[in-house]
## 1
Amino acid sequence: MYDKLWLIPFFPLVGSIINGLFGKRYIKSEKVIGGIGTLAVVCSFIVSLSCFFQLSAGTEKVYEAVYGSWMTVGQLQINWELLLDPLSALMLLVVTGVGSLIHLYSIGYMHGEVGFYRFFSYLNLFVFAMLMLVLGGNALVMFIGWEGVGLCSYLLIGYYFEKKSAGDAAKKAFVVNRIGDFGFLLGLLTLYWTLGSKGVWTINFVEISHNAHLLGPGSVVVTVITLLFFLGATGKSAQIPLYTWLPDAMEGPTPVSALIHAATMVTAGVYMIGRMNGLFAMAPDTMMVIAIVGAATAIFAASIGFAQNDIKRVLAYSTVSQLGYMFLAMGVGAFTAGIFHLMTHAFFKACLFLGSGSVIHAMHHGLHHAHLNDDPQDMRNMGGLSKKMKVTYWTFLIATIAISGVPLFSGFFSKDEILWWAAGSTRGGWMLWVVAAGAAGMTAFYMFRCVSMTFWGPQKTNAKAKDHIHESPWVITLPLVVLAFLAVVGGYVGVPAALGHFVHIPNYLEGFLEPVFGHAQETYQIAIKANMAHSLLAEFGLMGMSVLIAGIGIALACYFYLKTDVPARFVAAFPKLHRAVFNKWYIDELYDFLFVNPCKRFGLFLWKGFDVNVVDGVVNGVGRVMQLFSAGLRYIQTGFVQNYAMGMVIGVVVIVGFYVLR
Amino acid sequence: MENLVQAALATVNYAAIMPSLILTGFGMLLLLIGVFSKPGRTSHIAWISIVGLIVAAVASAQAWSALGATGVEFGFTNHVAQDGFALFFNFIFLVSAALTILMSDDYLKREGYAVGEYYALILFTTAGAMWMASGTDMMTIFLGLEVLSISLYVLAGFFRRDARSNEAGLKYFLLGAFSTGFLLYGMALLYGVVGTTNIANLGMYLAAHKALVTSPMTIAGMLLLLTGFLFKIAIVPFHMWTPDVYEGAPTPITAFMSAGPKAAAIAALLRFLLLGFDSMQAEWTALFWVLAVLTMTVGNLLAISQTNIKRMLAYSSVSHAGYAMVGIVAANAIGMSGVLYYMLAYAFMNIGAFAVLALAGKQGEENLTLEGFAGFGYKRPFLGVAMCVFLFSLMGLPPTAGFAGKFYVFAGAVEAGYIWLAVIGVLNSALSLYYYLRVMVSMYFREPTEDFAWVSMPMGAMICIILAIAGVLYLGVLPQQVMEMAKTAMF
Amino acid sequence: MITVHHYLVLSAILFSLGTFGVLTRKNAIVIFMCIELMLNAVNLSFISLSHYLGNMDGQIFVLFIMAVAAAEAAVGLALMIAFFRNRESISVDDFNLLKW
Amino acid sequence: METFYFYLLALVAVVSGYLVVTCKSPINNAVALMMTFVCLANFYVMLQAPFMAAIQIMVYAGAILMLIIFVIMLLNMDSLKGQKTSHSVSWAAGLGVLIFIQVYFVLNRSEPTGLTGGITNQVVATVGHTQLIAQSLFTDFLLPFEIASILLLVAIVGAVVLAKKNV
């Protein structure tokens, strides 16, 4: 099946092209369009599955498929190549599996939208780009996918382009992503150059991990390279300081949010670090930065999640926070745990987003019938929906329990693994555990706040609208059920050793990913500290504490939002704090103030200022310029031939003068 | 007398100028046909000129495959050298001219200037460009440059009832003639230093007389001469005519100017640098390092605040010239062949983008602003997608031609050790994203403000756009073969 | 004794004068005349150098420069006439549609 | 005698060149330019290049300048009176002087050297300047000569296209 690797990205690409070109005029039928889109991803899923089984059964753990040469530069040969190894196989399953469910869901959710064909075309393209990113055998093929997901997210977030906020959000996502992308490119450039100066001209991932040691462990250059790559990862995976685009990305249709947040795009950064683990493991300083940024993001985003009233925004900040966990895992060298959490997060976060979509769908429907203009996404308008939407409610609840880290659900296993490594790893520390555990408690709190505001308590929706709220069709609920199921059982592939010891379940995932991560972890001695490795007490103690913290979070949320008027009193007591949290700590304003506005002004300044003023100003003399300034910008004349000629002459005089008189 | 004729005939080698000869022949033929054609009915002239370009391309291809062991065919006592370098540039010129002519037919009719001379002038311009690329003597290159420039002055001001076109033509003319003055003064000084106008002889003489390399007269001559070419390539600070002229000129001509003649000036520049001033490499790499950084940065920064898309693309073409300069600074095989590759890629992507503009504009082209493009992507899906492809390529996203081109020149710079230059280049292309993106935002995220229903889809323009897309994707996905050609083309 | 230097310096003076004129005059035709002055300065350089070096190339070059000057004159003046028809002026001050 | 003649002509050339740049009326500019052309033709004679002198008079003074004057008449440039110079005189003057200083510096610091040919005054006198030019032009410089013909064709076509009133 390996030789059919190219089929995996091929199907979604074809689906995208068919829907994009023929959807509007020739196909028209929503069912057919949706069917083609879903089928394309399902086909990829089937191929991925067979590849996965072959890989886990076979002895060959790394397979590179080369489909011809792309570019040759000196000794650097760049091929069109795909790479299948346990890491990419696992990612393929997550992307195509969750992706197909989301496609199926979209058929129901997007029913009747203008540009249905367009939506499916973009969605397939998105999956295609993500698959290229995952399968890319060298950094440039990965970069195609890397750029591609940014681009598709741009198209999808701005899908409702009539809304100005959607267009702005899309632009923001793209621009922020591009900042990250250039980190990636610069990192690649530096890597290529430094490895090249060591005599190895390559950007192939397998060769990079083989030759990474040439750069010297802990050397400055490897730190710089990995930091640049990490900058790329923060852009894509919404970490501090480049996380602002992700919450705004909620402007897109809900399935898009699910796709971006759960299975694709945002996991790209984590995946990329996992892909280059050999390189990153060599740079302890960078790893430290990653761990700290991850932990900080986890708690920072969780704190913002407290005060959001828009159901999707809560989930968005929760994604940022959970991604922080993954980076924390990567930073302390727990690569497997990071990927594990990526996987379980894909399940429960997809379920949460699709569930919220189902709620919004129902609310929208209800409000529409009642001719109300209330925001269907505002949780303050909801409440008591559990009776109306049983499937949605139960799946949402299961996913919430999973994300909160309640034992025996998938989130518990993966999060606990991360916490354990954060505390016990040779690259970790107690502070990281404290921060991460705190964030876990906050997660439990705001997620249950979300559930209680949405599904429990009295119904706050307008009475007329209330009657029209009902459960969504099967295409929407079926994915929910499947995802909820996965959110429960998904964790059992990676049961921590301490627990597995008693119930005789081995840690499948660790064994499976060993060929990818084992080498780096062994070489750079990244493991649980010796004094903790055999202490079951320590592990169970930490586990117990994290469960306790999660329990406290859940209990507080239920208490606050169901029983008492504590939140209102809290707001009354600390109005400023609440407002600050509500306004996302004024980060957007700060960014506007610090970066966006100066950049705009800088561009404007250089345009009007340089072309108009400097050249003209040199001509006219400073006094004249002052006069012109006072007269106002519109009196500044330019487009004069002679100013241009003057510029040329000055250029000539300066250049010749410099060379002749030096 | 007899002797003179024989001596004259002995120097003639038509094979060495065959493509340009074909083009001038067709150009004159078009002038004749134009006389007998009714104004406004010029489609057949456009197609005949396409035939001429194809014949010239065939001749070039044949010459390419016939390149022997020496890889060069001299003619006219070393005035032209038809080598791989010249032939590769021939293809760039032919592609630019063909795409330009394809998009012109309908455009000229819409604007009411459909006459045969237009096509003849484009063919003459292309021939001039070929003489610049293949000339090995200052005089040939200078005359090629003038054929090209004078045709372009006319073409830029071709819409003679349109004040903006007049202004563009006149500005271009005055500044172009002015820069010619500097170019010639440089040539005069160099002639004084070495006593020859032949570039190869110049190079050999300078290599043999090391003292001359540091002589102020040589350096001043070289710099003044470079100035003339830098003006044509629109390198900062000699770029200031570009936005005005590009904005005012007829759109197809703007497209053409930004690709063909620019490539021609780069060809002549490269021949001077590599053949003539080889021994002064340290001097000119330092100069081009600074100019490349300035050009990229200024071009991009100024493009940011433009609202007229045509003008924005003009500033962007300034910055693209800067990227090409990066390859020249690298001055190694990858960088130099990267420049050739970049110019070919740029011809496809930029002319493609302008072709979309030419189709989208109304008569008088008042609507080529960001507002005018609002919702364009939904009203004209095909053109919208095409524009996106070209913009991606201009941004330098993989897998498009623009990415491969930038990759080659930057990789060349990295290999030559100019890592910072490559970094600045990469940062600049990040900066360029902002303004290209605004076009896409306009096309896809704004409510349409006007009706695009009147846009017809003429066959020529469609072929042009499809060819450009094919070129952009081919050069991006499978750049290897063309890059090998570019490598063999470098001397 | 008049050497080639004298001619070259004279040529430099004329060239600078021409440049000065291009930068200061407003009338496009006068600017064009100043450019012709610059070209003539170059011609003088070429011919004096040709004489000094005892080789004809420079004089041939001048011949071509003259041809080019004639061609430029034809096209440039045609452009000016076209511009004048539209704007009733050929002052560079009126080249003001394209800017910023 | 030669020295005196040179300086006299040079003075006339520079003064008339200055007048080209400064005279208010375009016609006066053109007349001054004519003076410069004639002075240069004289120099060409002094430089043993009589053919170039003749061409200088014929092409520059006879053709180009006539064309310019014709256009000045055609456009009836009264409207342009008073618009003598643009506002940047001092800067332009500074730059002009700077260019001159640089070139002067360059010329002072270096000798024109180079591959010298065998065309001495004697050769010119015996063979004849015109024939020398012709020999070069039609053997070594045949291609540029042909390109120049295309150039003139382009210029004619361009001028016609631009200047005619209707399509």
## 2
Amino acid sequence: MSLEIKNLKVYYQTLRGQVKALDDISFKINDGDILGLAGESGCGKSTFSNSLILLKAPMKYIGGEVFLDGKKLPVENYEKMKEKRYKDISIIPQYALNAMNPTVKIGKYIHDVFAYKNFSYKGVDNELKRRLKIVGLDEGILNMYPIELSGGMKQRMVMVIATLMNPSLLIADEITSALDVSTQKAVSKMLVEFRDKKFVKSIIFVTHDVSVLYQIADKILIMYAGKFAEIGPAEKIIHNPRHVYTKLLVKAMPEVGIKFSDTPLTGIPGHPPLLIDPPEGCRFIDRCPEKMKECVKEPPVIKVGEDHYVACWKEVKKNA
Amino acid sequence: MLEATNLTKEFKVGSFGRGVFKAVNKASFKIDNKDIVSLIGESGSGKTTIGRMILKLTQISGGQIKYNGKDVSDIKNKNLKEYYRKVQGVFQDPFSTFNPIFKADRIFKMVKNEFYPALSNKEWEKKLDDSLKSVGLNPKEVLNKYPHQLSGGQLQRFLIARALLIDVELLIADEIISMLDASTRIDVLNLLAMLKEKGLSVLFITHDLSLGYYISNKAIILYRGVIVEMGPTDKVFFNPVHSYTQSLLDSVPRLDMKWDEIPKRKKTYTDIVSYIPGMSKRELKMTEIEENHFVAIE
Amino acid sequence: MGKYFRRKIIIYLITFFVAVTIDWLIPRFMPGDPINALVGRLSNYPQATQVAYSNLQRAFGLNIPLWDQYLNFWKSLFQGDLGISITIFPKPVFEIIAEALPYDLLLMVPAILASYFFGNKFGAFAAKKKKLDNWVLPIWYMLTATPYLWLAILLAWAFGVVLNIFPIAGAYSFSLTPSFSFDFVFDLLKHWVLPFLSLFIVQLGGWAIGMRNMIIYELDADYSKYLETMGVPEKLIRKYAYKNASLPQITGLAVQLGIIITGAITTEIVFSYPGLGHILNKAILQEDFFLIQGCFLFIIIMVLVANFIIDIVYVLRDPRVRHSIGGEM
Amino acid sequence: MKVKNEKEISNTKEILYFTFKNKKMIIGMCLFLFFLLLGVFGPYLTQYGPMDYAGPGYHPPSSEYWLGTTFFGQDVFSQLVHGLRSSFGVGLLGGTIATLIGLSVGFFAGYKGGVVDEILMMVTNVMMVIPTIALMIVFAAYLPYRGVTIQAVIIGCTAWPWTARAVRSQTFSLKQRNFVSLARITGVKTIKIISGEIAPNMLSYVFMVYILQFGGSILAAVTLDFIGLGPTMGISLGLMLENAVLWNAIQLGMWWWIIPPGLAITLIVGGLYFMNTGLDEIFNPKLREM
């Protein structure tokens, strides 16, 4: 399988103590999968994606292992990860629109990156031109400055650069939230095309917008307050969720066709706990309408279907 | 209640300001009592500019705004204050709407000094408590706190409570929930819908079509500063005529259907050529293709 | 592109026009009557009195209307006639200044360029290591706080008097006449070292601090972060950060010009180096108004020309600016 | 340091916490206060006036004359402490004038925008290109009588441009913030918005600007005195240095005459710069990490 995470724990070191941003996450992705990673702000999804590729202060590695294509990925070792970065694992960052050096021509920028990482540039040129055509960018873009491009063009350019070495894992961190509806659809479809054309083996698509995930993700992982809530095929997570939080989250998504006057939706009262000292046991306990006495203990992860796991006491009770 | 005719906003561009950029181009629309009108457009469509023009935060370059029949296009001080008793606004980013170095409830003191200087403190205390409760906030929990000690949702409700304090008739809500998480944004929307029953009308400015559909009874689709389609929400969303509205509706990510499963739209009105701002040469004509459902046609 | 420079030139012309007007206005509207003050002072130079009358008629000519005075002033300005100096009688002001200018440039231009180059290199280097930064930075702050003239005095005293390595007065020994012979040039350089050092060292601190802060800012920018996530070696990240950090420093050069000239003037007084500063000091002490006005104008011209050159260099070096101007065509 | 709830600390407590932890801030304050006290109480420690002939000239420091005597026999220590008073005076007055002009121009241009902004910025740019020294020379040269106050006024009126430009860009960015729009739709008057909403946000920035102007005025005054445009009566650190150079203190090796005034200026202005960087680190954490 392409990527396996085992009990990964990453905390933030702050003046006021340790923020338990990522607490014991485990899951697997197969080759060619697009995993959607969703959750509200502060649930740890960005911490997760950054810790896989660039784990440095203020993030602190606590424990857990990561295997990519069967080989162990030394995420905790900043130096050893250097030659893995960009070759095996690459990221399209949240700040993609100003990820390129503004005062250097794009072609030279790519050339510099390859030269300094002493990768051979042979054959990369025509591959680069081929991929530019696929994403609808003209070759001339290579001797333009990033400032001369539109938002959409910059986004696509960074996508091409990030996947130029055919990394086995690509992380796309909130790349559609700043875009308009039309460009959002184009960029999401392009990501799927990159997977189909084998530019990348598998993709983790991080976003808070569950409806975009439904469109392009094969599997969806829902996180809440730094913890694993539920993972499963996109179809199941949206239409037959098992974790209480996922149910409420999907029910709170307005859709074209749902009107306040006929079917008013309900939000989730309260707000996520502060991760400086999170509640014991299930972290959704303060906001969960169906909480039980067991919920003060850590909910175990149980299998509820093909590739479908959930960490909720209610489900444990139902199966017992 | 509020009627805008040929509302235009031009910005000077280029050195020495010879070039002109039309952010809003001859937009005409009406907002009646107890209406929630959603003004939908992508970034750069001029929707925020329209909101700011109604709130008199930017100059109007052309056209006219009438409120309850009275022309308010360029009113000043005293009658501007009267206008603000009737029309108020809520902005997008809650953390930039509160001055970070003061306590959050300072906005209520400002309202008291400007609109109710004569009111005694006790009466004001009561009026403040009622409006906070009516937006679902518990006064003891939220008062005299710094903005960074409150959540985005609570701060937005503060702003709505502030408008209720002035018992306002029209609220301009400019992308008020785009900074909030999915779970908390629904409650703020429901709050707006409930206030509609009590007589408050709202201009709901957003780029998110499903939010626009959820609470509004009238919808306006804006593209590059021009209103391309306008009418009752169900008609605009389920019988879109303008090509831009159709493409917008087709690219909205839905939870019930994948993008490629969406059926092709059959042309309902074959003889219509939609007016594309910037591309179409001739003057646009807003024609009524069905009962008060208007489309911009060449 | 042309539009940008046209606008810049207009601004500089206006500045020059305003400066000259200030220069013309002040003697006329200052408290007390400048003419009496002038005549009074001239009385102790008997042979200068007739010249004073002719100058005063043309320069001030209070009897003709203000507007004509103003035009006369401009007319004489463009003929290079800035009036006759009283202290170095009868030499015209223009000549005195023209002789002094080369020494000024010989002193200031190398000091500016050298301090800019080394200052930025030190600043970038210090931003690398935390412990280096902790004790080097305070030194730089002290340096920029040092008045130029005091450092000049210290250098003169330490190297000139105590160690007696360098001469501390004049641009060259009196015995030699200016020529391109080896020993004259060597002597010229010996005199040049201390004034150059005092300008160079104080400036160095300023650039180092500016670069240190700018580099920290650039290393924190998104494009540096992305290079790091691509596992690119430190060298490239620093190379880009240094280039982008040195661009705003160029505009810093324009702002620093006024301060550098102040420094040069005081340093020249300490070393009695025959530049504009030395002349200006003497002109002030003798209250030779025409010479003061002349020095004032030349300082303005030097600053305007330097600013214009810096604008051009900045546009050529920074594509972002070039693009934003290009957009304005 | 365990804290009950992350949101409890309000930002003022946090700023105070960092202020007293910041080394640069403490060093800067100590230097500044030391010379301030020396300037205020110094004159009471010596029985000689700054210009009195206290004893034999050319006399190195001794128990009698702590910092020795000048070429003419004036007490250097007495000149130093009186000179400090005039330097602080110029710094205070000149710094205040420059900051006030800079603030009002910056606020007004930044908030009003449009034509007003363009005119004010044109004036600022013109004033910025003309080196302050040239302006000072022209103004001072024609004044029959020059005192510390007039000198401070001249310095103040010529040193404000960079403050105006910095304050303008700050005001411009704050104006875009929504809390200004909120105040406008509550019908609050422009002046009240500037003073009530924008200015308080810039207090830290204004204080840092004032520190730089204070130090800048002192340096400018020293330069003016040195080239001969100093106060015609009384003593100042710049005048001390000018006399020292004029009467060949360097050639005669009278280090006790030339080092103390210059060192005092450098440490005062250096202390101010330290405080400025300290404040900068406190208010913008990016620099703090270094």
